[in-house]
Amino acid sequence: MTADTPMVKAEDVRKSFGLVEVLRGIDLQVERGEVFCLIGPSGSGKSTFLRCINHLEKINGGRLSVDGELVGYRQKGDRLYELREKEVCAKRAEIGMVFQHFNLFPHKTALANVMEAPIQVKGENKADAADRGRRLLEQVGLGDKFDAYPRQLSGGQQQRVAIARALAMEPKLMLFDEPTSALDPELVGEVLDVMRGLARAGMTMVVVTHEMGFAREVGDAVVFMDGGVIIESGKPREMLTDPQHERTRSFLSKVL
Amino acid sequence: MADTRTAPGTGTVPLKAVPVRYPGRWVAAAVVLVLVAMLVSGLVTNDNYQWAVVREYFFSEPILRGLVLTLELTVIAMAIGIVLGVILAVMRLSPNPIVSGAAWTYVWFFRGTPVLVQLLVWFNLAALYPVISLGVPFGPSFVSGSANNFITPLAAAILGLGLNEAAYMAEIIRAGILSVDQGQTEAAQALGMNRLRTMRRIVLPQAMRVVVPPTGNETISMLKTTSLASVIALAELLYSAQIIYGRTFQTIPLLIVAVIWYLILTSVLSAGQFYVERYFARGAVRTLPPTPLQRLRRQFSRGGPGPHDTAALLASSKDTR
Ligand SMILES: Nc1ncnc2c1ncn2[C@@H]1O[C@H](COP(=O)(O)OP(=O)(O)OP(=O)(O)O)[C@@H](O)[C@H]1O
Ligand SMILES: [Mg+2]
Fold this sequence. Notes:
The complex is a heterodimer. Chain A is of the alpha/beta class. Helix content of chain A is 36%, strand content 27%. In chain A, the strands form three sheets. In chain A, strands 8-9-10-3-11-12 form a six-stranded mixed β-sheet, sandwiched between helices. A four-stranded antiparallel β-sheet of chain A has the order 2-1-4-5, with helices on one face. A two-stranded antiparallel sheet of chain A has the order 6-7. Chain B has helices at residues 23-45, 51-58, 61-92, 97-112, 115-123, 125-128, 147-150, 153-179, 182-190, 195-225, 237-248, 251-280, 292-302, 310-318, and strands at 4-5, 15-16, 131-135, 141-146. In chain B, the strands form two sheets. A two-stranded antiparallel ribbon of chain B has the order 1-2. Chain B has a two-stranded antiparallel ribbon with strand order 3-4. By secondary structure, chain B is mainly alpha-helical. In chain B, a hairpin with a 5-residue loop joins strand 3 (131-135) and strand 4 (141-146). The complex binds adenosine-5'-triphosphate and magnesium ion. Adenosine-5'-triphosphate (ATP) binds next to helix 1 of chain A.
């Protein structure tokens, strides 16, 4: 893909669960190397949209593409062909995802968590995967926790392992779904620090967050979602300090 | 044991702590001891037990051969049960209604009929299908032969016990799979792992923690259920004993031989279960429960857990089952 293809492009993306339409026409564009923040009240569809990007959810309408390629489908002429499981997996492997509740594999040590996907999905050999795993864990400040099981780690440490696990696949895009909202306040900083470092290194990131300080400082773009539509979007500094829309204003007054 | 402690604020004067006495416990213990003594004296003095005969046959060749067959049957039937059970459990959870329906029907049928009846049906399969052949469905067959040649008592027992066990294992494993948090599957899929690999590497190993204890019970239960194969004249432990007492009429001593061997085998299996459970608890608990050996060592190094030694009390209450 050319350098000016957006990393994520959504055009009128729609998603329903049964009769309830959760995403009602989302249009947005995430540029390469950008930190793109999604904010909005609970139930507004932020997680759902994020999960559509790596095809954990299927969209019901509109077009969604990552790095210039449709998510979950291939277009031939005027028809869309659903991708096979193998192809879907190959695309997911290029997108990292970090969850609110970490979702580390509890039966594996920190290092084994990080090594799992490179070995199983990419077929990397064990020694290389271990080398990379150790380097990544050191990078997120867990050089002394290789052999710890997730339950022996604090929330902040677990989330940093989860970030290292996603990075081990060398993704071109990272999705973060409220990565700090399950953490005690004093642990939020250590996770945000790691994310700041990633942003500085040029990683493209889509971040659902309630950390307005982080959005303002690190974010390149922010959108405010409510009821499955985008209410307002803009530069974090401008939008978060001077929102144009009434709903944005009332939401921000509650979280700030 | 520290019965004397220095209470805070009392300077250097040691105070003596008097533990509560429980006279009721002493009475209960005495009653139990008397009953046990009566039982033991009955066992020893009643000549009808014929302990000499028990001793004579305990290590006799037919009994030992029966013992080995019982063990083989248990292992093979459980292996079939577990492998088929995993397949059935995964089928039950399939989004394809025909696949999940087939698994449901299997469990319905095999759980719904007595295993003794199933054994008899397998044993008499030749009456139902005199010729068994292997080939293309509704097409030519490659191998065929009389069912009587395939369905030996051993084959009937393996099929009957194994296929029946699969129905129970399927439910146990399905419960285990459902106990694993949905977030685990999502995390694995987000990393690019496919359904099969996610199941094998992420979900099943975690399901094991829930699956292992009931599987241990199933194994112990299977060891005893193999005795049903005596009705189809398979010379496992019980039938071997029956053959002997059919000849010598020493019914009780030979049944005692069987009882003692069953107890020994189930005890060994229970011990094995503890270690297997401990293995699969990795990562699920912060610290693993101590093995009996570790507990023993700990008791000796500390001189026994004192009344205030909550850690040791917790540890010992956790694995007394
Ligand atoms: N699998 C599902 N089945 C049915 N409804 C769902 C499902 N997933 C999400 N929803 C509904 O979709 C709506 C949007 O959910 P979503 O999780 O995307 O919200 P969110 O913006 O991430 O909220 P939060 O800030 O609480 O995480 C909610 O009303 C939710 O109940
Ligand atoms: Mg959410």
